[in-house]
Each structure stands twice: as C-alpha cells, then as structure tokens.
Amino acid sequence: MQTFETCRRFFNYLQSWTPANPRSRAKTASITEAAQQLRLTPSSVSIQIKKLEQELGVQLFERARKGLILTGSGKVFLEIVLPAMESLRHAEVMVKDTAGELTGNIVIASVYDIKQYYLPLLADFAKTNKEVNLTILTGDNTEILSLLTSGQADFGMARINPSTAQFAVRPLISPRPCLILAGDHFLHPKKKISLADLRECRFVFLPRNTTSRRLIEEKFYRAGYALNVSFEAWSCADIIDCVLLGLGPGIVHDICVPTEKNSLRVVDLTSIFGSTDVNLISRKHKFFSKADSTFIEAVLSYRKNKNTSASWKKRSRDAL
Predict the structure, then answer these.
(1) pLDDT, average across residues 4-26
(2) What does residue 194 show for φ and ψ, rounded to 5 degrees?
(3) What is the C-alpha to C-alpha distance for residues 300 and 316, in angstroms, rounded to an integer?
C-alpha cells in the first residue's frame, strides 16, 4: 500500500507538469524535483518506483541521464491503471464513510495570514473529528497551486482565482488593507490620508512574491509613485511588531489587526487599494469524502468571532 501511495503521488506529479495530451507524456521527469514536491527523499521515490515495477513485472520508466522517461507501459499505467486505482481508493473511502464517524486525511495549503485567521476553525474541526488527520501547509500562491495540481493538497486557501477548467473555486472572505501607524509617526495625527501622503513613507511590508505586495505596488506605479519598502516581514503579525519597534508604518489585512496595542492608529485603505478575495480551491473533479464535504461546509460558514477584533477596530480604525 505504501508503495502504491508513493507512486500514485509521483504519477499525479507527472500529470501536473506534462502536456494536456496524454500521448505526449514522455518528457523527462526529474526524481530530485519530484521528491522535493512530494516532500520525500529522491532515494525513497526511486525505491518505491522500482518496487512497483517489480510487482507489475514491467518497466514503467527508462532511466536517462537527465531523469526518467515514461515507457509504453508507463503511459498505460498513467492513463488507465492509475485512474482505476484511484476509483478503488474512492470506493474504500465511501465504504468507510458508511460507518458514521468521519475518517480520512485532509491536507490544506494556505498563505500564512489566512491560515492564522482560520486556525480557530481548523483546531475546532480537528478536536471534533479526532479520526480525521488534518495537515496544514503554508506557502505562496504558486506553491499552493502546485500542491493542489500534484494531489499533495486537497484544498487551498489563497488570494487567487485560478482557471475553472482545472479547479473548483469557492469564495471565502475579502480582507481589506489597513495602514498601521505608530503614535510618533508624522501621519498619525492627519485626519485624511491619501496615496500621495503614503509615497513619503518607508514601509514595513510583505515580501515581493505576495499578491498583496504586487497589487499595492501596481497602484503606486499607476499613480506615478514608487512603493518605498525599508524592511520586509514574513507576515502581517510580524509587520505589526515591526511597527511597534519603530521600523516604519505597515500595511496589513484587517483580519490581522489585533484587539489591543492601543498606541497604534489603524486606517482603512480600501478606498485607495480595494480589497483582495480569498478563495477555497480544490481540483475540479476531486472525489470528496464525507470528511471533505464536512470541512468545506465548515469553512464556508465560518465567521470569526466578532469580539476578536471588532472592539479594536471600532476604537482605532479610521475610514478615509
């Protein structure tokens, strides 16, 4: 079973990088790259592929200098045998679902701040459904799509709206951008803050590869300004800590605004930058177990406890 599971994930990985036409799926596969994507060692992947070939009595790959090339038998396995085994696995899940108690594995890939927002829900889901193994992976939008495509993640929570031909997309929330100012910042007493005011700031900001950073940089660029970033922080929580340390103002999502830290001023920047939609993403034709369906329902109906941030926002956030 372990041999098949590893190879199933490897073949799913192949489907993520090979062309859409099954007959052209004979390009070279890198064991090292596949192992990194599957979070396994190259030797582990190689051993499991050899075991599967021994069990089947056929050669699935030709070993080339640059990696592996699918043989005719390998193509058959990819196009016919693998889907049949997937159907068998789905049938096994359906039978287990009749027992009543939720079981199985759910892997979620999320950007950091969205994971933090949904963490109370994920914790409650795990406590309520003790027989469901819940795994949470953190990455950027590109990594999340890669994990979904290769079958390593069942669900993604990210600020992207991928092709509906390959993915099912369910809207979740639309976080608003907020400016965080320390009490001694020159903009702190200013009643109305414009984009022209922001060009004078040296920001603590998210890394360049994030969707939020890209969208705000584009807004600055279109206005003929440059976003001046003096310090990069990995998450909204880190940005707020850096603002408190005097490293500069920051822009975070409203869902990350803390309940306290009253020395800060929070300004809603939606009228300048708009908001970004967060979606729950899954593969288009993914089979959903009862645990999967229950998870989807829980995420779509989740609303963070208003007491967590509403009181802080009411006291401290200023509309433009």
Answers:
(1) 49
(2) -110, 175
(3) 29
Q: What is the mean pLDDT of residues 278-291?
A: 88
pLDDT at 64: 73
Strand 229-232 with 203-205, pairing: parallel
What are the tens digits of pLDDT across the range 26-35? Answer: 445 667 776 7
Contacts by residues 295-298 (CB-CB < 8 Å, ≥ 24 positions apart):
295/106, 295/125, 295/155, 296/155, 296/170, 298/121, 298/125
Domain, as residue range, for 135 = 102-174+277-310
Whether residues 188 and 254 fall in one domain: yes
* Residue 12 sits in the same domain as residue 90: yes
Regarding whether 285 and 156 lie in a shared domain, the answer is: yes
pLDDT in tens, 139-172: 888 889 888 887 789 999 998 888 878 899 999 9
The domain that holds 131 is classified in CATH as 3.40.190.10
Number of structural domains in the chain: 3
Same domain, 163 and 222: no
